[in-house]
Design goal:
The complex is a heterodimer of chains A (110) and B (166). Chain A has 110 residues and is mostly helical. In chain A, 57% of the residues lie in helices and 5% in strands. The chains are: A mainly alpha (110), B mainly alpha (166). At the A-B interface, helix 2 and helix 3 of A face helix 1 and helix 2 of B.
């Protein structure tokens, strides 16, 4: 049986795969609007996403049903993870952890 | 710097424009942000993302017989959602088809050739607009839906040519 790609489901997002992962991680602890996501992502990863990149990722995640918009608050739409988004994020984090473990093991043995 | 948002497609602005405008207005202008917004605008034109929410809302707001009417209204202004690439293709095909038809009409005296090119000309120039409706479907479906009408127009032109030649 063919081994699943570690980047499965995210590779099709192209240059937005990393911002999309950061958005999913940001929404993992509850709904947030765009500005809150930018600040949270910067605090978590050090990466400051521009609005063009952030909404490129949001539109892709929303069209794939991985996140959904809630009712607007003062021109701001909060977004939350859907069940499919949570599942996708868990799978992706597990894949990343597995790849990281292999890398660390090899470095330790070098 | 919110003027940069005018570079985004209309559908995108309707969906995300107010949110992004609020973020842009709250941050200091910088070269990095200009480049980010420009990159986002190009991406939004080249790879438009269908909105899952707008699809659901449309289905909920537009039940039963109203759907066909809405679809017909969308067909009335089909060029609205064309991407930059499709718009360029449409312009190129219109100019190209017009030049070819003019050249054929000048070169040939054959009533058959004239009948065929004149009948097919409208079909060729609206082909890129028709293509908007079938994008994303399999290549067989696209070939049938886009090539089918052209074949029918060709046959009509052929019949007209045969009648004229007699």
């Amino acid at each position: 049986m063919a081994r699943k790609s570690w980047n499965e489901g995210f590779s099709e997002l192209g240059r937005f795969s990393e911002p999309a992962l950061l958005v999913l991680i940001s929404l993992a602890d509850g709904p947030k609007h765009g500005y809150a996501m930018i600040e949270d992502i910067q605090a978590v990863s050090g990466a400051k996403l521009g609005p063009g990149t952030l909404y490129g990722a949001i539109s892709r995640l929303e069209s794939r049903g991985l996140i959904e918009a809630l009712a607007p608050e003062n021109r701001r739409n909060p977004y939350r993870l859907t069940a499919a988004g949570e599942h996708s994020l868990r799978q992706r984090l597990r894949s990343l952890a597995a790849v990281a473990r292999v890398g660390e093991r090899r470095l330790a043995g070098a | 710097m919110t003027w940069l948002l005018r570079l985004y497609p209309r559908g995108w602005r309707r969906r995300y424009g107010a949110e992004v405008e609020a973020i842009v207005a709250s941050q200091p202008a910088s070269f990095r942000m200009v480049m980010d917004l420009l990159g986002g605008a190009i991406d939004a034109h080249l790879k438009p993302q269908p909105s899952a929410r707008s699809r659901r809302e449309k289905a909920a707001d537009d039940p039963g017989g109203q759907r066909m009417l809405t679809r017909l209204k969308e067909c009335r202004e089909p060029a609205v959602d064309l991407t930059v690439k499709e718009s360029l293709l449409a312009g190129g095909m219109t100019i190209g088809a017009a030049l070819i038809v003019t050249a054929i009409l000048f070169i040939t005296d054959s009533p058959m050739a004239k009948a065929i090119v004149l009948t097919m000309f409208p079909g060729i120039i609206i082909l890129p607009v028709q293509a908007r409706y079938v994008r994303g479907h399999s290549w067989i479906a696209q070939a049938l839906l886009l090539g089918g009408p052209l074949v029918i127009l060709f046959l009509i032109g052929l019949a007209a040519g045969l009648v004229t030649s007699r």
